[in-house]
Specification:
Helices cover 42% and strands 18% of the residues.
Length: 158
């Protein structure tokens, strides 16, 4: 699978998560050319603001590989990782993060709040982007907005 195929898989996970009533984010960890773990956002279900897709995928990859060091791994994400997820990837020594949808393209989902470039999280996000432009790569992907549409559609029907 190439990076676009892997991003489409992350988007597929995000769509399935949105259809399940959870926040529309999915991620996978690729190491040695193989998908070693996946994750979805379960913050609503678990009442855990740190239960993000990338964090779940990193945790699962570490367990699967029996290591705390994911050097050489890539996180493929349906959406640009927030500063929490970017930090988790840095702590695990993930080499790259590739994402399908930019933070600016995320509509108001109710939670997490829409990114405000002037608040603390917005400034931290901008700093993370600036500190590691070679590590975090936006690869626009067809269908990247679908998880958001499905999530909003589900909320409107509820």
């Amino acid at each position: 699978m190439d990076e676009r195929d892997l991003l489409r898989e992350a988007v597929r996970l995000a769509v399935a998560n949105a259809d399940a009533g959870q926040l529309p984010f999915g991620a996978l960890v690729v190491h040695g050319g193989n998908v070693v773990a996946t994750g979805v956002n379960t913050a609503l279900r678990d009442q855990d603001p740190t239960a993000h897709a990338e964090v779940a995928a990193i945790r699962a990859a570490c367990r699967t590989l029996g290591t705390l060091d994911l050097g050489g791994a890539t996180v493929m994400s349906s959406c640009e990782p927030c500063v929490l997820c970017h930090s988790a990837a840095a702590v695990a020594r993930v080499g790259r993060i590739v994402y399908a949808a930019a933070k600016e393209d995320v509509p108001d989902l109710g939670y997490p709040a829409t990114l405000d470039p002037t608040d603390l999280l917005g400034r931290m996000q901008a700093a993370a982007r600036g500190l590691a432009p070679e590590q975090i790569v936006h690869l626009p992907t067809d269908g990247a907005a679908e998880p958001f549409r499905r999530y909003r559609q589900g909320r409107a029907a509820a």
